Amino acid sequence: MTVSIAANGDAARAIESVVPRLVADLVASGITAQDGELWGPAAEAEASNRLGWVEAVTVSRPLVDEILALRAQLHERGVDRVVLAGMGGSSLAPEVITRTAGVPLVVLDSTSPAQVRAALSEDLERTVLVVSSKSGSTVETDSHRRAFEQAFTDAGIDPAERIVVVTDPGSPLDAAATQAGYRVFRADPTVGGRYSALTAFGLVPSGLAGADIAELLDEADAISVLLAVDTDENPGLALGAVLGGTSPLRNTIAIVADGTHIVGFGDWIEQLLAESTGKDGTGLLPVVLDVDSPEVTAGLPDVQVVRLVGSRDAERHVADGEVEVTGTLGGQILVWEYAVAVAGRLLGINPFDQPDVEAAKAATRALLDGHTDGSGVVPAFEEDGVAVTTTGGLDAGTTVAQAVSGLLAGLGDDGYVSVQAYVDRTTNPDLVALRDLLAARTRRPVTFGWGPRFLHSTGQYHKGGPATGVFLQIVTDEQDDLAIPGRPFTFGQLIRAQAAGDASVLAAHGRPVLTLSARDASAALRAITAALPA
Hints:
This protein is α/β, with parallel strands linked by helices. The chain has 20 helices and 16 strands. The strands form three sheets. A six-stranded mixed sheet has the order 11-12-16-15-13-14, sandwiched between helices. Strand 5, helix 8 and strand 6 form a beta-alpha-beta unit.
């Protein structure tokens, strides 16, 4: 099945007016030819070295047999539980691929002590760890690797038999893993992390977990020729026009899974959109919604609803002002990658860099190097076990209700709320309900991110995009901490430093941040719910 784009309203008008211009400018064939000049002189150097993803299907074909052979070897030894240590693009694509395929994969994309401990403690004797890091220096995945190395050793298991590494050639992780005797898959260095779904980063953990990665590549291959041709029927150009060509620009992209067989695809799209476009004070804010989320029917003028649907038939009508996208997982991955590259051109930005992601990492390192995790900051006050801290010039008031009201009072007509939960996401799923609750009360878009996972995703938009957001951090002080072997800090200290570091960077960009710290996430949720006006 090919990928289909159907649109109504402003989105349809954008396709009608923008796609012919893109065709005339030879944008589709230019992307396929890896022409870095498409995004202007300032982006040319970066873009010229970040377009390898257009060849991912061909380049990745030889990997399939290698991955399947390794999976068979592991199964012969009784190793059939796959844990993936990765952040951002290194974890989001495998999570979607395996969930859609219905095969188990433990995704470890958190520094929460409880979440790390859970991954370590279950069935270690039949576990293989895939460590994925493009740079080879990601602090989260380095910490995960150290913890598993120690756990394997303590259990009498040779880590060299149980750790598989995916990284760029020549990275620090490449050198360390090779020296340790680990199996290393070296990825294409000309592919950025968020565009890496069809490379080793997406295929190795997914294939080891049991997904049909050959079929995934076949699905992408089936649409690749159409994407390369400068024609009005090119779905990458059509979707790119929807994302970046509406007039006036609908810069909030509401992603709604509504009948699609692809599980969790919105989270992958979220990173691709936010990290690619949120910079230079502009960008597209992705908001992952349910079919009944408030923003879907609110009629907000800056929101473009994009529904991910199942097979379309001739009787189905696209709702007024909406877009419907259908197709295979492999096909849609490639279409969205082309579309976001096109949207970057329309917005006048470089879709391949992420200048503000490093700032939060640097702030975290500064705190840890100073032997602090930021928890020493004296809160403005504490109420019912919830400590309240503010940055960015926000007035905390004297109660949680006043603090929350003060944060939301800064929400403009074009603003959004960002909820950032630095907690164990596997045991606190109820926190997500806060997103719809805030959206209903504020009548504005609300994003929800699990920390530190979102720092490698929407974190770029929050700092580099339009300065319209207000930020609510939820941080838990887990009492049962976990050491990181060979490091002078623990997992608990690391996640608290990541929250404090990001808050400081947001404040430096003039973004107001309210941090609620509690012994457990439920206490913070109760406090916020009680604080919201009826």
